[in-house]
Amino acid sequence: MNSQGAFGGSPEAGGISRPDRLTVLGFVSDPASEQVLRDSLSDASTGGMDIRRGTVRTAIAAMAKLQTPEVLIVDIAGEEQPLQALGELSDLVEPGVRVLVIGDSAEVDFYRHITRGMGVMEYLFKPLTREAVARHFAPLVSRKALGQDAARGGRVVVFIGARGGVGATTLAGNLAWMLGVTAKRHTVFLESDIHMGSGALLLGGKTGPGLRMALETPDRIDTLFIERAAQPVAERLHVLASEEKLTEPVNYAPGAARRLIEGLRVRYNFIIMDVPFLPMACNRELIEFAHHRVIVMDPTLASVRDTLRLLGLPNGPWQPQSPTVVLNRHGRPGGLTRKQIEEALKTKIDVLIPDIPKQLNESASFGEPAVTTKGPFRQAIRDLSREIGFVAGRDEESGAMMRGSSSVSGMFKMLGLQKG
Known about the structure:
By secondary structure, this protein is of the alpha/beta class. It folds into two domains: 24-145, Rossmann fold (3-Layer(aba) Sandwich); 149-402, P-loop containing nucleotide triphosphate hydrolases (Rossmann fold, 3-Layer(aba) Sandwich). The chain is built from 17 helices and 15 strands. The protein has helices at 31-41, 56-63, 82-90, 108-117, 130-142, 148-151, 168-182, 199-203, 210-216, 223-229, 256-267, 281-288, 301-311, 338-345, 357-366, 376-387, 408-415, and strands at residues 24-28, 49-53, 71-75, 98-103, 122-125, 155-161, 187-191, 231-234, 237-240, 270-274, 292-297, 324-330, 351-354, 391-393, 401-403. The strands form three sheets. The protein has an eight-stranded mixed β-sheet, with helices on both faces. It is globular.
């Protein structure tokens, strides 16, 4: 083992990237993890990235011959003696390397041992998600920390429809239901359109004056205000929405949206927001201070055009990854194909929602989320939950719990907000 006893890297190690070596060299054992790493780290790897198929033993053999990269990613899944293998690897790399590890153990003691005792910068357990890699690995690759404000409190996910009527409200509402009712996480659904929004109707919830008050008088926002403003739909699912007169515009106070988000993050594990991209300061702030953007489109040329424009928006300060692109109504007669859309966008579609108008129309008519019914739509919402960093555990029919980011540290930070 090297003179430091293990790896000696730090987030600030190196200061300036060395032009003579790769930014990222990775060894992973399965194609799914390889693809997630490529998708999530390509923008952060300014000096090049090489992801190879292999295990920690493959990495040991390779690093005996190769130059040490700035960041080394190794896969210890299935390794019988992972601590010994990491110790052997530490003998072969330069002390300043930043080592990121993926594996199959979710034990907290194991995480503490390799990060605190061996100098591993971060550990994720499988299955990897783009959200988890972007949030926990990407800042260590780029050396651009997100700051403590992004880490503390609940997670904010904003849904943006590429155009009106593409189904962003429906998808956001159903995801909120899955998180709050099925997964039993403290969740609030925020509908930013206080005049014509339909999110409360979809969830069978009530509207109230609280959202408008928050946007016009942010000084009133505190814990008690949040408790009174958000209307209950279920024990752990609330709705924050208004239904104001069409003749009464909002007198928005600049900065109120961010203050509202900060207040909600103290109370809820998840803040799911439905926010149309309109030239309004309130909507811009809600979109900017989300952790994760989800762009919803349908298979039309106009939707492709507007999705391209939304993808061109700069990320907010809490957003380490590119937006998730959801193609709704996939397979609709006369619509564009997935291949045509991906060629036009020059990026891949992350989640496909099948065209099932009968089920969704009935859901909208009766105020019962479609995700309550077993079928392709519920599976698609589960796929969407994975994209924002959560996967279903146990049997879904018995009331599946959702577990969070596959970083052990991230899991406690994000899911440990509410006890009981």
